[in-house]
Input
Amino acid sequence: MAIVTEYDFETNTWTHYGDNGARAAWRAAVQEIAERAKQTLPDCAGRVDRAVQMVLNHDVELIEDGKARVCSQSNGEVVYHVVNGECTCALR
Output
């Protein structure tokens, strides 16, 4: 599916054609979960915002057995695996 975007200079708005609603529902669900996470973990709000950005940019992929594959944000050739809340990345 292709989404064609058009900008209207008179109204200063973007119009997206071809969106069947599923994309908007997905983004709304991710945002709702993020807001809940920030309420539960207020000291981690910045990390939650960054995680949302990664999810929406397709840098996180859920794989079998509840694991996740997460692309490195500093090295485009590195992929980390998250299993049971544990990540293979080097902690900073």
Q: What stands out?
A: The first strand starts at residue 4 and ends at 8. DSSP finds two helices and six strands in the chain.
